[in-house]
TrEMBL record:
Domain DUF1616: 18-313
Stretches that traverse the bilayer: 12-29, 41-59, 71-96, 102-122, 160-181
Protein's recorded name: Uncharacterized membrane protein
Organism: Halorubrum cibi
Keyword set, alphabetical order: Membrane, Transmembrane, Transmembrane helix
Keyword NAD found: no
């Protein structure tokens, strides 16, 4: 004998809604891997906004016992409602924070879902009081009411239902991937080298020749666009390299400086680096390595989060009389 609605404890569905919200918020805060984060996020975006929207609408109405067709139709109704609600929530998130980020969308959807769940609980309690507690609380109205509102048949699962459900899943899943898997341009750090031109810092007219008894000055800059506070380490070196086709081999190097600092999102750091020609000859370069957190003992271009360099020729000093 299949269970009926009356046999399902009241408001258990709202407890499940709260659990999903907590799981998604925790996974986002912990920056869990995509394989762990995506399943609850898909449920969070695909289903919950539409579910609480429909639950509020039908909170005071009767419904019939669960069956496969009823479950699929109500799931599709929730998906369709989510597709209608999500763009509005995304725009609201953008207007509040000035940008559309995963954290912003999760916070906005969580607020909407929890508010909808609370409103559903209040409306169900009113219905229970009005009916004398004879019936349990119900997340949806009767199947006839839901079917009439979307034009589904009441006896079987129609092809229209299947097509609608599949199309909604694909559309909202694409949105879920877009906001939970960052693109290369969404989170980044800018590393740059500047020179002084009067009272300005510019990205041109770099020094390309240095004498052994002279010095040069460059300004190294970092801008955090990671959407979170990040600890950085900047290492600068003078290197002698050997170029063979497309391969570059470091044969000798001298450390210039090392800086460790922390930047919030949108903040910048700049440091003037004055250095001497501790190495002389051709095929020399001024190299800057940027790491997030602690760098390895031997920094390289491959291990660095960001790196940049300038070619410099360092000539031996000219002695008097020559």
């Amino acid at each position: 004998m299949s269970p009926t609605v009356d046999e399902i404890p009241a408001d258990r569905d709202l407890v499940g809604v709260g659990v999903v919200v907590v799981v998604v918020a925790a996974a986002t805060a912990a920056e869990a891997p995509s394989a762990v984060r995506l399943p609850p996020v898909f449920l969070f975006l695909l289903f919950l906004p539409g579910y609480v929207t429909t639950a509020v609408a039908y909170a005071e109405r009767d419904r019939e016992p669960w069956s496969f067709v009823v479950l699929v139709e109500r799931f599709a109704l929730s998906l369709g409602s989510s597709l209608a609600v999500l763009p509005i929530l995304a725009v609201l998130s953008y207007l509040v924070s000035g940008e559309l980020t995963a954290w912003g969308l999760v916070a906005t959807v969580s607020g909407y879902v929890l508010l909808g769940a609370a409103a559903t609980a209040v409306r169900r309690s009113r219905r229970s009081d009005a009916s004398g507690g004879g019936r349990g609380s119900r997340p949806f109205g009767s199947r006839e009411e839901a079917s009439a509102s979307v034009g589904w048949s009441s006896g079987r699962l129609s092809p229209l239902t299947v097509v609608l459900a599949a199309s909604v899943v694909v559309a909202v899943a694409a949105l879920g991937v877009a906001v939970t898997v960052p693109s290369h341009g969404e989170a980044a750090t800018d590393l740059h080298i500047l020179t002084e031109q009067g009272d300005r810092l510019v990205a041109n007219e770099y020094p390309d020749t240095l004498t052994a008894d002279g010095s040069a000055a460059l300004t190294v800059g970092v801008t955090n666009e990671e959407h979170r506070t990040t600890e950085y380490t900047v290492i600068t070196e003078i290197q002698r390299v050997q170029v063979d086709g497309r391969s570059v081999v470091v044969v000798e190097k001298r450390r210039i400086d090392r800086h460790v600092f922390e930047l919030g999102h949108g903040e910048s750091w700049r440091e003037r680096q004055e250095f001497e020609a501790t190495l002389t000859g051709e095929n020399l370069r001024f190299v800057t390595y940027l790491y997030r957190g602690e760098p390895p003992e031997n920094p390289t271009t491959d291990s660095a989060y960001r790196s940049t360099y300038l070619w410099i020729d360092a000539q031996p000093s000219v002695t008097a009389g020559e």
